[in-house]
Amino acid sequence: MSKTAIVRDHRFLEHRTGSDHPESPQRIEAIYNMLERPEMVGRFATIEPRLADKAEILLVHSPAYLKKVAATATRAYTALSPDTIASSGSYEAARLAVGGLLQAVTKVGSGCYANAFALVRPPGHHAEVNRAMGYCLFNNAAVAAAYARKVLGMARVLILDWDVHHGNGTQHIFEMDNSVLFFSIHQYPHYPGTGSFTETGLGRGEGFTVNLPLARGYGDSEYASILHALLPPMAAEFKPDIIIVSAGFDPHEKDPLGNMRLSLAGFAALTRCLMEIADACCDGRIVMVLEGGYDIRTIGDNVKAVLDELSGKTKCRVSELADSASAKKVHYTLKRSVNVHRRYWKCLSHPLDICCANKRFQI
Ligand SMILES: [Zn+2]
Q: 249 C-alpha vs ligand 1 centroid, how far in Å?
């Protein structure tokens, strides 16, 4: 049995966004071409996607919004927002993206596979309850988390969003919910403008939204160091049943829509860090879903770096990478975050030991 499964389908190419749109079918074509390389063929199980039911989409979206997206199937092109274009094939692709991810969550949840990566489009994390935004139609990760809770009966879901843009839609959908921990690391200030340290959730959900806004220019070792210091203790306290990852590849150093400096090693490190957390908390259960990533030349190799980790072909040494981080950048981010979240999390009530750039410090 393959340890790692993927979701892929040619119908994702039928979501057409017009010429010169960054979220183009070529993105997923590049990823699927990578999967056809001789060294990749046969390494992963394939999970067949299905069309999500309307009731499943309504777990997070409003009926009026679902109707609005469904109506796009009868027209050549519809602008759902200034930057979110739907073609006649988009509604089917969007339902298939949700359904593919739900299949992956179901199969990983039941132990058929250790982990999975849904290589789907359109992306989802900017989509709000009642509107499209930022190239996103339905919020794939949010529907999957709601489905894991309400249909599969899981008690708690951790969503980690490493796309370079803040996942405003996912945050808003779960901001009052203490059963979904939304943890986002992103460039800030940047599109869509949300995701500051002080956005921590509302009501019963207070403390269950964790934002790590980073200034431009953070690289592999800083991402690894920050995540490695903060997420394992918080996850151990939260005790998720599954980890869903909004995996965007736009923090890559060559991406046209971001200003971060991640390389293949950084994506491998983020993946390994999450695998270690999942092994400790939830029998290794991780399901990733593709969000952004707009450099067609590198997106295939970025996804490969993640799949190589997920399947155990490579094993990134996260702490070694984290040790070479800029102490100044790491210290600032962790201190701000810990100061905000110390009141909600017992694990942050005692000092965190950080080691980077050969210096040790406590926060
Ligand atoms: Zn993005």
A: 7
